[in-house]
From TrEMBL:
This is ABC transporter. It holds the Pfam family ABC_tran. It comes from Streptomyces niveus (Streptomyces spheroides). SUPFAM superfamilies: P-loop containing nucleoside triphosphate hydrolases. The keyword tRNA-binding does not apply. One of its GO terms (cellular component) is plasma membrane. InterPro entries: AAA+_ATPase (IPR003593), ABC_transporter-like_ATP-bd (IPR003439), ABC_transporter-like_CS (IPR017871), ABC_transpr_LolD-like (IPR015854), MacB-like_ATP-bd (IPR017911), P-loop_NTPase (IPR027417). Residues 4-232 form the ABC transporter domain. Keywords: ATP-binding, Nucleotide-binding, Transport. GO terms for molecular function: ATP binding; ATP hydrolysis activity; transmembrane transporter activity.
């Protein structure tokens, strides 16, 4: 099954002389249970592609489907609901709430949605992320790497169908990064989750089932990784 699909997706910023074509007729499938890395030079459109497919950004033309749902047919409220039900996000800036503890930040999206976490799964996520003794600290009492791990745990906690990550291991040392990527890969295998990750790091990309390369707003290459074990 196709978890997310973009068809002839274009995104233009600005108008007239200052116009920038960030995406130029991109067509791509993200299949269920597949871990995809998006690579390419700075400014090639990686973040824009991810934001448009995740329903965070509007686009200029083309279409995006999440599952069977065409995003352009949704009202804002329905789009918010769809993101809440199906999608987990890991951003470069962690977006943690400073007044909440690590654990409260992790369960916040589910609290808002009125859903109970699967306790066993939540325990696994927290153990894997190595945060057991930091759960009741506020973000300011955590290192950058620890904050990023909280953000990763928050995205995984509700077992979303699709996880979008923008440099999800960019602030982690290589060991913590390897643990997070290994966990993401396993949860793809075990839960049939779909992961789409923007990264500059070839080591991080080696955990993905396939890598797509962008340049100037177009997909210029695609590589399958038959082993996808990561190099660490
Ligand atoms: P990447 O993630 O590969 O670095 P981006 O998707 O951030 O690329 O950007 C693609 C192009 O769109 C770049 O030329 C960038 O400067 C431009 N761009 C991105 N966001 C905006 C914006 N909000 N306004 C104007 N131009 C933008
Ligand atoms: P990334 O590291 O993901 O490529 P950038 O540093 O390019 O991110 O962009 C950070 C933010 O600034 C993004 O929200 C992007 O949309 C916005 N942005 C990028 N390029 C421009 C631009 N030329 N004009 C306005 N906003 C931009």
């Amino acid at each position: 099954a196709v978890a997310a699909h973009a068809s002839a997706l274009s995104k233009v910023y600005g108008q007239g002389e200052t116009q920038v074509v960030a995406l130029d007729q991109v067509t791509v499938d993200f299949r269920q249970g597949q871990f995809t890395a998006i690579m390419g030079p700075s400014g090639s459109g990686k973040s824009t592609l991810m934001h448009c497919v995740a329903g965070l950004d509007s686009f200029s033309s083309g279409s995006v489907r999440i599952g069977d749902t065409e995003l352009s047919t949704l009202k804002d409220k329905q789009l918010t609901q769809l993101r809440r039900d199906k999608i987990g996000f890991i951003f470069q800036a962690f977006n943690l709430l400073p007044t909440l503890t690590a654990l409260e930040n992790i369960t916040l999206p589910m609290d808002i949605a009125g859903r109970k976490p699967d306790k066993q799964w939540l325990d696994n996520v927290i153990t894997m992320i190595g945060l057991k003794d930091r759960l009741h600290h506020r973000p300011t009492a955590l290192s950058g790497g620890q904050q990023q791990r909280v953000a990763v745990a928050r995205a995984l906690a509700s077992q979303p169908e699709i996880i979008f990550g923008d440099e999800p291991t960019g602030n982690l040392d290589s060991r913590a990064g390897a643990e997070v990527l290994g966990f993401m890969r396993n949860s793809v295998r075990e839960l049939g989750q779909t992961v789409v990750m923007v990264t500059h790091d070839p080591v991080a990309a080696s955990y993905a089932d396939r890598v797509i390369f962008l340049a100037d707003g177009r997909i210029v290459d695609e590589m399958q990784n038959p082993t996808a074990e990561g190099v660490l």
